[in-house]
Structures are given as C-alpha cells and as structure tokens.
Design brief:
Elements (H helix, E strand, L loop, with lengths): L5 E2 L15 H17 L5 H4 L4 E5 L6 H12 L9 E5 L1 H5 L6 H16 L6 E5 L11 H6 L2 H20 L3 E7 L7 H6 L2 E4 L5 H16 L3 H8 L3 H6 L6 H13 L2 H5 L6 H26 L1
Parallel strand pairs: 2-5, 2-6, 3-4, 4-5
Antiparallel strand pairs: 1-3
Bound molecules: adenosine-5'-diphosphate and magnesium ion.
Length: 296
C-alpha cells in the first residue's frame, strides 16, 4: 500500500530555529514556498511555469530534512486559513517495491494518494526526502547501473510532478538530496529553485555547539558556562569539516571518552571537547582524501 510510504511521525531532534544555516538559505526556502502557495492558485501554469517545487541539496547532516519538515510552521501565518499541512514521503520505500511495481506505486502515490490527502485545498508542503533514490540521473553510466524499473519510476515521478503542478497549485514540494551529481536534469529543471545547504562554517559550528551544550546546561549547569565561554570559538574552529549532526554528536563523544564525564557530564572541559572535535574532523579529512585518491 502506498500509504505506508507516507510518514506521519515527524518528531525530530532539532526544529527550524535550531538549524544554523546562512540566513539566505532559510529565507529563500520560505519565500519561494510562500510565493508559490500565494500566487499559483490564481495564476495559470503556462504563465508562471512554476512547478511549486524546491530542491534542498548539500552534504548529509546539514539540516535539509529538518528545514523541509519545519517549513509549514514558518508559512502558516501568511496563508489564508493560517494553516499549512505537512506530508512526508519516503522514496526509499517506493524504490524497494517488487520489480516492475515502482512506476505504478509512484503514479498511485504522487498522482492520487497525496492529492487526495490534500483534497480540501489547504496549502500543503510535500517533503520528498532523499529524492536521489528516486530521481537518479538517466545518464548512460547510471542506466547501466540501475534496473530499468528505476528509470520508468523516474519518468513516473516527472510526469506526476508535471500533472500536479497544473492540477494542484496548493501543493508545494520540497525535495532533499545529499548530492546533486546524480540528480536527473529534467528533475532539477522542474525545481523552481535549487538551494545549497552548506557545511557549517566556524561561526555556525560555534552556534551549534553552544546550542547542544546549552540544552544540556538545563540539567548540568556547568555546561551552560562552557556554552557561553569565549574560548568556545577557538574550540569550534577545530571542528571545521564536520556537518551539523556530527558536531552535535561530538559533544556526546567527548562525554563518552571518560567514565567520569559519563557519570557526571558537568565535569566536561573545553580541552576534552576540542580534542574530540579535532579527532572527528581529522576523520572527515581522511575520508575525503581517501575518496579523491581512489577516484584518481
Ligand atoms: N545546520 C545545522 N545546525 C544545527 N543542527 C544541525 C544542522 N544540521 C544538522 N543538524 C543536526 O542534525 C540533525 C539531522 O539533520 P537533518 O535535517 O536530518 O540533516 P540532513 O537532512 O541534511 O541530512 C538535526 O536534527 C540537528 O540536530
Ligand atoms: Mg535528510
């Protein structure tokens, strides 16, 4: 059943406000979505060529899924009825369908089921998470590597997006992708905007570490002091190369280094945190270099 592919449980670690990204990323996503939801219902598709779709792309762990899920709440106060619905699709589920079934399931899901969930006309954000699993490039290389069924399914996605663009102007699709090289050109050209969500810079890493330490500070007050410590900036600089998710996790890895800080997290020092971040960042550098070497 296609309805198994729609996730209703959207509990997350972080919310829109806790994602530290360049302001223009959030602004552009929210504006693009709002423009689409406000303008498309009264303007013909032929005039706007707007598909009502945005693609967020960038490295894993940079906040793309969290931003997509948080979008409805950002828009609600601006739309008629003051509510925006969230529907989330898991494309991995689509593609694991039995051989020959994917195309039909895509048709059913995007063409029928999603529009039926939003049949009341309420503005609706549809999250197509990790869309690369669905919209793989139909290049020669990828044709060789992927079963024909996946390509028929990609066609079905494109057809459904075109049809929904014309028939359902109250839908706004946010696709996320952990990479872009393999994204289908025809898919990207249907995106009204493709927005890069970058790895955090030093200032963003500091803000992310501060937020994680600050949250723990409610229970362990000395960690609040670390969160506000001026030296946290220098510590964050050790973390360059880490994504937001790994930067948050590194705080817990630092605690896990020593049984004493496991049992009393308030004993954590900035030195221990810096050492963990440096180790983790070194791992990403090694992985990146290893990847390049292998490719050359
Ligand atoms: N830019 C960021 N700022 C703060 N936290 C982040 C950021 N990116 C990721 N995180 C943390 O990692 C978690 C997972 O992020 P997610 O939205 O799934 O990333 P993506 O979809 O890009 O892989 C978030 O809930 C948050 O705790
Ligand atoms: Mg994601």
């Amino acid at each position: 059943m296609v309805n198994e592919l729609v996730r209703h449980d959207t509990r997350e670690l972080a919310t829109w406000d806790e994602i530290v990204a360049p302001p223009e990323v959030k602004e552009r996503l929210a504006n693009q979505a709002l423009l689409s939801l406000l303008i498309r219902p009264s303007s013909p598709f032929v005039a706007t060529a707007l598909h009502g779709m945005c693609t967020l792309y960038g490295p894993p762990g940079t906040g793309k899924t969290t931003l997509a899920r948080g979008l409805p709440q950002q828009l609600a106060s601006y739309v008629p009825g003051r509510a925006v619905r969230l529907i989330e699709i898991n494309p991995h589920g689509l593609m694991s369908a039995e051989h020959g079934q994917s195309q039909q399931r895509v048709d059913e899901l995007l063409g029928d089921y999603i529009p039926s969930l939003a049949a009341d006309g309420m503005p609706t954000v549809v999250v197509l998470d990790e869309v690369e699993s669905m919209a793989v490039a139909r290049s020669a290389a990828s044709l060789a590597a992927n079963p024909a069924d996946v390509h028929r399914a990609t066609d079905a996605v494109l057809t459904a997006l075109d049809r929904n663009a014309q028939l359902h102007p109250h839908l706004f699709v946010v696709a996320t992708s952990n990479f872009t090289d393999a994204l289908d050109e025809a898919f990207l050209s249907r995106s009204d905007a493709a927005i890069l969500v970058p790895l955090p810079d030093a200032a963003a890493l500091r803000a992310i570490l501060r937020s994680t330490l600050g949250a723990l500070g409610d229970t362990y007050p000395t960690l609040r002091r670390l969160a506000d410590h001026p030296d946290l900036a220098a510590v964050a600089a050790q973390a360059i190369g880490l994504d937001g998710r790994r930067a948050r996790k590194a705080v817990f890895q630092a605690l896990a280094r020593d049984r004493a800080t496991v049992l009393s997290p308030g004993l954590l020092t900035l030195e221990a945190l810096a050492a963990t971040l440096a180790d983790e960042a070194a791992l990403t550098t090694t992985a990146a270099t290893g990847g390049r070497d292998a490719a050359n």
